[in-house]
């Protein structure tokens, strides 16, 4: 902040004006999301570092937190579609992992873990039943929006733990968008969507230590003004966030990240999703965006 002043009679300063750094006006856009209620949520196995089958789990609490997330989207003016949960698929709540939709074209998922493999076909059938004519199921392992993040210009594509790097070229062919590969190196951040999210066109937030040196350099070149998350933001899955261009849905613990995005003109909206985090998920994991 700076001020401009002159000396008045008696040498008293006269303040002519105060200038502050310009904060962009952020405008939300209405989104459409696909979600799945966690009616069968539990932690029966461990396929990521967050999962511990010996910890107690409350399906009732998980459902209450998921409902609050859904109602938050609806309160902000977004439309939420719901797919029916299937018994025996406790991670189906994490709908982001089961499809990538850009301009009405759908690239389905192929899970690395056998415990989740059946989810992909349930989502495929939902797409076909809801008017999507171009639905391609992948040949290579890809965990959809878990590792594919659309910026509006590029498809950022993570690899290292789940998605096959050859799935990146497959995504480019199916979706017809340019793909930029990013290497993940920390097993706690096994999907791209727990290490990075898009705030608005040409602006992202990410945790550098989740990426290889070359990927960090690429992100700096592409997004020099990015919001940089710290270790505490990452550890509460703060980067598993959802932005509509103004409102940023964050876990309640991600206060530092919330303060940072607020300084950029966004409005942080905090939700408690702690029960679902016991399976390694946050707001974004529960939210597939339908970009028609």
Automatic annotation (TrEMBL):
<keyword id="KW-0378">Hydrolase</keyword>
<dbReference type="GO" id="GO:0019546">
    <property type="term" value="P:L-arginine deiminase pathway"/>
</dbReference>
<dbReference type="GO" id="GO:0016990">
    <property type="term" value="F:arginine deiminase activity"/>
</dbReference>
<protein>
    <submittedName>
        <fullName>N-dimethylarginine dimethylaminohydrolase</fullName>
    </submittedName>
</protein>
């Amino acid at each position: 902040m700076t001020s401009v002043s002159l000396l008045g009679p008696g040498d008293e300063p006269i303040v002519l004006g105060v200038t502050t750094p310009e904060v962009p006006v952020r405008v939300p856009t209405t989104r459409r999301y696909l979600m799945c209620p966690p009616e069968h949520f539990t932690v029966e196995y461990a396929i990521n570092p967050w999962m511990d089958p010996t910890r107690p789990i409350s399906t009732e609490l998980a459902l209450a937190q998921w409902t609050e997330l859904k109602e938050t989207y609806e309160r902000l003016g977004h439309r939420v579609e719901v797919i029916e949960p299937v018994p025996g698929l406790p991670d189906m709540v994490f709908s982001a992992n089961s499809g990538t939709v850009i301009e009405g074209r759908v690239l389905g998922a192929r899970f690395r873990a056998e415990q989740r493999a059946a989810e992909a076909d349930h989502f495929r059938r939902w797409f076909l039943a809801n008017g999507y004519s171009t639905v391609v199921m992948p040949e290579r392992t890809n965990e959809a929006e878990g590792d594919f993040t659309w910026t509006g210009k590029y498809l950022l594509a993570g690899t290292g733990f789940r998605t096959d790097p050859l799935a990146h070229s497959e995504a480019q062919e199916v979706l017809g968008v340019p793909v930029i590969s990013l290497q993940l190196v920390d097993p706690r951040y096994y999907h791209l969507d727990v290490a990075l999210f898009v705030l608005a066109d040409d602006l992202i937030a990410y945790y550098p230590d989740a990426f290889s040196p070359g990927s960090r350099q690429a992100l700096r070149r592409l997004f020099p003004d990015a919001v940089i998350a710290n270790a505490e933001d990452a550890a509460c899955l703060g980067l598993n966030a959802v932005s509509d261009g103004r409102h940023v849905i964050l876990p309640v613990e991600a206060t530092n990240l919330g303060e940072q995005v607020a300084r950029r003109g966004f409005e942080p909206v905090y939700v408690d999703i702690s029960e679902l985090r016991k399976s390694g998920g946050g707001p974004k994991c529960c939210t597939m965006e339908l970009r028609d």
